[in-house]
Specification:
The protein is mainly beta. It folds into 2 domains: 2-71, no CATH class; 83-224, Sandwich (Jelly Rolls), CATH 2.60.120.260. It is built from 3 helices and 14 strands. Strand 10 and strand 11 (165-176) form a beta hairpin. It is globular.
Length: 225
Amino acid sequence: MERACCDREGWPGNKVGILEFEGVVFSFSPHKSCFSEINQSVIRYRQRREDGRSRVCLALMYWGCGLRKVVVSKSDEKKQPAAGEWLDIEKIATAEISSEDPAFPIDNALDKTGTGGWRASGTGPQRIRLLFDEPQRIRRIQLHFVDRESERSQEFWLLALVGDELREVARQQWNFSPNGAPEELEDYTVELDGVKALELRIDPDRSHDPKQSRHVASLERLRLA
């Protein structure tokens, strides 16, 4: 929750107050009487990701103030990349992997067909790192995991090297269950410019210790746009 403090004295004349948060501008016509009752306004802004496009913005109204919202950011209904708009990772990056099952190479998870997926050669935490030939502009990241056999709790970290700064893009846990949740699909809308590398760390059973791990990490598909 974000809090924006209001000026107790209000604004003189007919000036309009402006509050901006996460690309959304809230404009209102304040008056002194409303500030005698409160000295804070609270704006809550939430993002709800269903297909990478849907956003919900909620504003708590000022007591006694007429509040108007003006959306100045790009359309919430962002265009989803068509099949030809996904980046051809094989042509623009080199993949570094901590291990690989010869029958399930990383190529399977990165090519446009996405058949078979990648699988580690052994149990324990694994790492997939993409080193781009040239810095990339990334606006969408899609990760697809599949396990139809194991009952396990997985955790992954997604990091991006932007310039000289290593940023955490996402961190997610998922409970796989053959009869209930055999697949995990994560679709992130991001604003990343000048990405030199992207790293995915997977802990297949949240053991944090290769010696205690009993499961093998896998990735069905990774797509970037």
